[in-house]
Amino acid sequence: MFADQQVTLYTADGQRISASHTAGPGAGDQLAFVVVHGFAGGWRQERVQKVVSGLRGFGGVIALDMRGHGRSGGQSTLGMDEVLDVAAAVTWARDLGYQQVVSVGFSMGGSVVVREAALNRQTRAQVDAVVSVSGTAFWYYRGTPMMRLVHRLVETQPGRAAMHARGVRIGATPWPTPPPLAPVEAAAELGGVPLLVVHGTVDRYFPVEHAHALYRAAIDGGSAQSEEWIIDGFGHAESAIDLQTIEDIGRWAVKRCESDQRSIRGDEA
Fold first, then answer.
1. Beta-carbon neighbour count of residue 153 at 10 Å?
2. The dihedral of CA 252, 222, 190, 140: what is its sign?
3. How far apart are alpha carbons 39 and 66 in whole angstroms?
4. Domain map of the chain by residue range?
5. What is the per-residue pLDDT for 132?
6. For 31, which DSSP code?
7. Are the beta carbons of 106 and 50 closer than 8 angstroms?
8. Residue 25: its pLDDT value, please?
9. Band of residue 267 on the pLDDT scale cut at 50, 70, 90
10. CA–CA distances in Å: residue 73 to residues 126, 182, 241, 242, 260
11. 108 pLDDT exceeds 60?
């Protein structure tokens, strides 16, 4: 397991979050990735460590257990309050001295990082770029058998009990009305923050229409450097992603951050 540091972070609403930091290839790294797992995940899982391993060649890597998962406290709110967990991790990256931070989220984590990037512009928790892998664009999506199963698990007491037995603690309190900012709405509010949307053609949870919607919203909202990668034969999230795609994400992040630094210095027209 890759981890040079293991710490407990505290969110703005007081939740205890387990997180790790893995240094990159050089002591003077300027770039950090914040890796955000999907539903029922955690930073110690092999599938998440695969992502950490692939990205550490491009910068430092911070990974976390979102609330209700792993060794973090609290209960999962299924993407609503988890933005505070990611914000705490991004702020820790800034405290460690990283000048640029790119969040990389998978599935539920993919929706969380887009929302966090939109909600924390102009704060210390602002990211320089965001990557959503296998993420949803819309709340309450039930258009696939897998998502209908997920909804039964999270919306019923027996389902939540079954997930608790697997180490995932899900809150029973309904979302407010109106619901929190949807990922597609957040993508439209990224401004100049580049968004990379990565999605597979054989995703059993969310069809590629979710990726198209996120990408279009980001472009229409002014995030001109955003990109969409639709990968033939790729399934869903951390379990299906291969090392080549992880490394491609790392290279994309480096390129975007270098472009941003050139713009700040006035090297680009």
1. 19
2. negative
3. 9
4. 5-139+181-265
5. 98
6. E
7. no
8. 82
9. low
10. 24, 24, 28, 30, 36
11. yes
Output the six-digit token pair for 225. Answer: 């450097």
- Cα gap 141→79, rounded to integer Å: 13
Select 5-139+181-265's CATH number: 3.90.1640.10, 1.20.210.10, 3.40.50.1820, 3.40.980.10: 3.40.50.1820
**Which distant-in-sequence residues (6+ apart) come within 8 Å of 122 by Cβ?**
none
Residue with tokens 């069809």, as numbered in its chain:
207
Alpha-carbon radius of gyration of the chain:
17
Question: pTM for the whole thing?
Answer: 0.94
Q: Residue 62: is its pLDDT beyond 70?
A: yes
Enter the tokens of residue 131. 């990557």
Amino acid letter, 26:
G
- Which residues neighbour 232 within 8 Å (Cβ) at sequence distance 6 or greater? 200, 201
Cβ–Cβ under 8 Å, residues 24 and 250: no
What is the pLDDT at residue 1?
61
Q: How far is CA 260 from CA 22, 56, 216, 225, in A?
A: 24, 21, 21, 10
